[in-house]
Design brief:
The chain has about 775 residues and is α+β, with helices and mostly antiparallel strands. The chain is about 30% helix and about 25% strand. The strands form ten sheets. It has a five-stranded antiparallel sheet. Its main location: cytoplasm.
Length: about 775
């Protein structure tokens, strides 16, 4: 056992009070060499918040000192929530931090907070920040303004609520109104803003592409690979070498296909299926063996670990691996030999996997298909497409049958499917948005999804049974307070999510049952969206806690190693264990230390990528809508707060109707009814209602859209047109704005008590932007 683990075990199980370094040394009976190590180990543990020293220099565990260690998630209104690092603390919920008790901490800082009694009914935990362990915002992107002797930068990130003060000597040639990157030189103190120096001028706010570039710098996304990584990539051969075929099962005789979107270039999964003589099905899932080329601790590996994932922005992809690998030797391109790690499964008619093999293979993809082609064959029954792919019908028909039985089996056990469309912004050659497109799940996508889910579960179960260190994809129980809040909404529709009376927990079947009841009804989208935000965020973990959303006991990410680092690790671990069925004791101890760090880092990088992707889409949606200022739209109330209602248009764009613009009455917020109700007129605006609105403002700089109600608001059309709309809009464009199919926008709905966004993570079992939002 490592010295750190021994210290933690001693303090948790033997120490009944805060202890000195001498107490720890005596309690552990350390030898001289261990005694020398102890002081540096304790310093490291303190810096990471694993232990806390009090004023008497005694050490204690945060959980035993009424303290919580975690990362601060700020709200633009000035308050925040601490998301605990310790899973046991995380189960108790986030900790609310009022604006007056932040003690100069900023968004994403790692902090220690003291727990206080909650000042608000219904909030379980509240606290104050007492120590900042690690500052997160070393660089900030924003807009520069100046006077003769000083300047300041207003952050683009609205969760950073303080401007950054800039001395004249640190302007670095920045002009008023330019977008800049500022490096923090002094952290904020009481009644003093942070200070910084401008290290890069990105350009004028209105320059083409500056919006996306600002997001890239805001999230510190890499624009290029280091030279060392480029050199390492150039050494990777472009074709499979003769020596690579050894000790691999040859599957080049199988008609393996890939099925992806039209624009996909990094093809990391292929499938093959057939019906067996005993009535069961054979399903082979063949995943690019990236771990063969990206060796542990090599420059390629360390850079991939740092990035964690590929990032899919509105106008570009920032890959996890260099193009030579992700679009070249690792991509399962048709007509070329490729190395793969395979999960070959026999599935019975009830969707049960009766046997399986996990093995390294060499494959030769027979053909590349797209979702459109598969849909034309299986859904549209398009004769021309069927004739052109007649040789694939013996493969596609079994795949369809497998999809149906796997999906049915998942439904029986309680797996939750949120039918929420995803948005894609179509850009022209200059990066300007010209259309908003809705991406809804098709049969072709569903076939691949079920195959990937089956492979992920099979690999996770296999490694769990081996009792070897591993990385799982986990999704924990929803927060009870959020379920109660969701039930408040559901009560308006005579629905309710019941808890298990014995365990006081939620069965995913209960949520599935509610979603099935509202399927196809007007309230389906609203209830699905709120239910999704009720879910915990899926994450990577070295321990297996199951996957609530999938109702799965075992789950991992195995199917996208080109663009997700945890998948690459899973492949590496499989490669290590397959020859003998076990891993050495020394390697096991090494992995026990390494995997928790990788799991946490990968989860953080995933959230960064998700936020960056969402921000770029939101910006382009607002930019697209700016041409329609003054136009009328029909929408649905998607959120209700004390300060107004959020309205979502048919095209997926969401904006705020501020309560101050409602001129016919004074309105009061009735939380349990999710409604604003007029005192005198009793006029009600509740979640799910259809309303007609006028677009008042589409502010790209502030990243917000404002509506007013057509029949309950005052609007100066001339003034707003002159400010917001610099070009004419044709009738055709106007029609498209209201009817173009899109997904949902940035979640600013405050009808949830905890305004920190709680998506349940992203499945990312495929590449590109097609994501199942809870897997």
């Amino acid at each position: 056992m490592q010295l750190q683990e021994r210290v933690l075990d001693f303090m948790e199980n033997q120490a009944s009070r805060p202890v000195s370094e001498e107490d720890i040394a005596n309690g552990l009976t350390l030898n001289n060499e261990e005694l020398i190590q102890l002081f540096s180990v304790l310093d490291d543990m303190e810096s990471r918040g694993l232990i806390v020293r009090n004023r008497n220099d005694l050490c204690g565990l945060p959980s035993q000192m009424n303290l919580v260690v975690g990362h601060l998630s700020m709200n633009s209104k000035g308050f925040g929530f601490i998301i605990p690092d310790d899973p046991r603390e995380a189960e108790k919920g986030d900790v609310f931090i009022p604006p007056t008790l932040l003690n100069c901490s900023m968004n994403n800082d790692k902090v220690i907070a003291r727990l206080n009694d909650s000042s608000l009914n219904g909030r379980s935990r509240e606290g104050e920040v007492i120590r900042i362990l690690e500052h997160a915002n070393k660089q900030i992107v924003g807009t520069f303004e100046k006077s003769t002797s000083f300047g300041f930068v207003t952050p683009d990130d609205k969760k950073l609520t303080q401007d950054v003060f800039i001395h004249k000597r640190n302007f670095n040639g920045a002009a008023i109104g330019t977008k800049v990157v500022v490096q923090i030189t002094r952290w904020p103190k009481k009644r003093q803003n942070p200070e910084g120096k401008i290290i890069e001028v990105l350009g004028k706010i209105d320059d083409p592409g500056i919006d996306i570039l600002s997001v890239i710098h805001q999230y510190e996304l890499p624009l290029d690979f280091p030279e060392e990584v480029k050199k390492a990539a150039k050494k990777i051969p472009l074709t499979v070498q003769e020596k690579d075929y050894k000790q691999r099962t040859d599957r080049r005789d199988l008609k393996i296909i890939t099925v992806d979107g039209e624009d996909a270039k990094d093809l990391d999964d292929g499938v093959y299926a057939k019906k067996l003589d005993n009535g069961n099905f054979f399903l082979g899932v063949y995943i690019a063996d990236v771990s063969h080329y990206v060796r542990e601790n090599s420059p390629l590996d360390l850079e991939a670990r740092k990035r964690g994932t590929s990032v899919y922005l509105a106008d570009r992809v920032i890959p996890m691996l260099p193009t030579r690998l992700c679009n070249g030797i690792c991509s399962l391109n048709a007509g070329e030999d490729r190395l793969s790690m395979a999960a070959e499964m026999e599935i019975d008619s009830n969707g049960k996997i009766v046997s399986y093999k996990i093995l390294p293979t060499v494959i030769h993809v027979y053909r590349r298909l797209t979702y459109d082609i598969v849909n034309k064959i299986l859904v549209d029954k398009d004769k021309e497409t069927i004739d052109a792919n007649a040789d694939l019908l013996p493969l596609l028909n079994p795949l369809l049958e497998i999809r149906n039985i796997l999906k049915k089996q998942r439904n029986i056990r309680g797996s939750i499917d949120f039918n929420i469309p995803e948005i894609k912004v179509k850009l022209d050659s200059k990066g300007l948005p010209i259309a908003l497109l809705k991406r809804t799940g098709s049969l072709g996508e569903s076939i691949i999804e079920e195959c990937m889910l089956a492979a992920n579960e099979t690999v996770a179960k296999h490694m769990f049974m081996k009792k070897t260190p591993f990385i799982y994809r986990i999704h924990e129980q929803p927060d009870k307070e959020k379920i109660d809040s969701l039930n408040d909404l559901l009560s308006a529709f005579n629905l309710h999510i019941n808890k298990d009376t014995e365990t006081d927990s939620i069965n995913p079947k209960a949520i599935q049952h509610v979603l099935e009841k509202v399927s196809g009804k007007p309230e389906e989208k609203i209830i699905s969206s709120v239910a999704l935000r009720t879910m915990q965020q899926a994450r990577y973990c070295e321990e297996n806690f199951g996957h609530f959303g999938l109702a799965a006991k075992y789950y991992t990410h195995f199917t996208s190693p080109i663009r997700r680092y945890p998948d690459l690790i899973v492949h590496r671990l499989l490669t290590e264990i397959l020859p003998t069925g076990k891993i050495s004791t020394a390697r096991t101890e090494q992995l026990k230390k390494l995997l928790p760090e990788i799991a946490l880092s990968s989860s953080i990088r995933e959230r960064v990528a998700t936020d960056a992707e969402r921000d770029t889409v939101d910006m382009k949606k607002i930019e697209y809508m700016a041409r329609f200022v003054g136009d009328e739209f029909s929408g649905v109330i998607s959120g209700v707060t004390a300060f107004g209602i959020f309205v979502e248009l048919d095209n997926g764009v969401e904006g705020l109707v501020h309560v101050s613009s409602m001129v016919n009455d004074y309105y009061e917020y009735i939380e349990k009814k999710y409604a604003l109700i007029g005192r005198r007129t009793n006029t009600s605006y509740k979640i799910g209602d259809v309303v007609n609105v006028i677009l008042m403002r589409a502010d790209i700089k502030e990243r917000m859209i404002d509506f007013i109600l057509k029949d309950n608001g005052v609007y100066n059309q001339v003034n707003y047109k002159s400010v917001n709309n610099n070009h004419k809009t044709s009738k055709t464009e106007k029609a498209k704005a209201g009817t173009a199919k899109t997904g949902t926008t940035k979640s600013t709905n405050s009808h949830k008590k905890n305004t920190r966004r709680h998506s349940s993570g992203t499945n990312n079992f495929k590449k590109g932007k097609r994501k199942s939002t809870h897997k």
